Sequence to fold (235 residues):
Amino acid sequence: MATAAPKLSLIALALALVGLLGAYLGILTPMAGFQTFVAGALLGGLFSSILALIGLFLTRGGRDPKGRTQALVGLSIALGLLIVVLAAASTGGDAPPINDITTDLEDPPAFADTTRVPDYAGRDMSYPTEFVSIVRESYPDLAPLRLDEGSADAFRRAIAAAQTLGWAVVARNGDAGAFYARDVTSIFRFVDDVVVRIRPDGSGSRIDVRSKSRDGRGDLGANATRIRAFFDELR
Fold:
């Protein structure tokens, strides 16, 4: 078991790298890459750690110095993998397992129809009613942004802010005062859809945002973070 520990941990590391690089290079879908990474880093790291600990127990007391060294190497690699997974998971803090966040829970900005944005075809783009109370409780800081300038100027500034953040603006609807964009995560290349709606508000304008992940149930807080970053850029 001691000699098998480093071999298994290296297999787990290789599997994690395949998932990460496969998704980043587009060889694997984002979800397939993520699942492969988790299988290697989390499951492989956990199993390798257990095997290494057993190896350390069996080689205690100087029974097999070489085997003990191999067990220690295997444990180090396995723990490194587990630390990476836990560190990545901790970035979401206590984010709830939802993936569609908006600043207007009473009237969420609507995504365009499929004639305007074909990527939405075959997907339910309505806002889940069960998310309303969760967003209200988990993200009390998210609220519409009010600007002093009129809606036309605010629309142009919002487009510029989105592009500065690296979003791809895929469609605009001047009549609805909205534009539609997508943002891609840096590592696993998950695609998230965004709609920004600008409405007149007295002498100024009100901006609402909705950010929705295409894959998975939870988002580790990524959509809320995206909305905050967008508003910070506008400010």
In short: The chain has a mean pLDDT of 91. The domain at 100-234 is CATH 3.30.530.50 (Alpha-D-Glucose-1,6-Bisphosphate; Chain A, domain 4). The chain is about 45% helix and 15% strand.
